[in-house]
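Recall the central idea of this unit: under ordinary conditions, the amino acid sequence of a chain determines the structure it adopts. In this exercise we apply that idea directly, starting from the sequence alone.
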Amino acid sequence: MSDPNKKFEEVTIQSKHIFQGNIISLQVDDVRLPNGETATREIVKHPGAVAVLAIHEGKMVVVEQYRKPLEKSQVEIPAGKLDPGENPLEAAHRELQEETGFTCSSIKLISSFYTSPGFADELIHLYYADALTSGPNRPDDDEFLECESLTLAEARQMMVEGRISDAKTIMAIYAWQLHQLTGQF
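Accordingly, the structure predicted from this sequence is:
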């Protein structure tokens, strides 16, 4: 039986490194397609990230911050990139505390997903946390945000309004709704 991950495989002929930033890098690959033809692929390399669906007193903890690529503020669940070699579970605890001030004794993995597999390899690990303890937040020096808590209805309304429009937060809202209905993710 053939490997299902290799179905329609594109074999790299040549890879050219184009850009190295603080968070991402960009490479351009020439590939051989399954039909023998060639094509070019622009690939964003990303270290991966974590996001936390944190529930406190029946409400979802979110942060609002300005997102330069969108040129507007967005309401999102706490999240951040993985540091080199960092365990995603440890990063989830770190990001929750840094952005919101909340800590918790346990965090459960809901799912891991690729954000844009057509051009990027970013993998986000989405966690669930409850039984939170509040404390001071410690955002990064270049991070300006405000923490708040939302009911499910408020979160869904913010989706309608476009104040919540990122995939990780939308996925978290639907996961929370499923959890409320079934007790499972």
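The first helix runs from residue 88 to 100.
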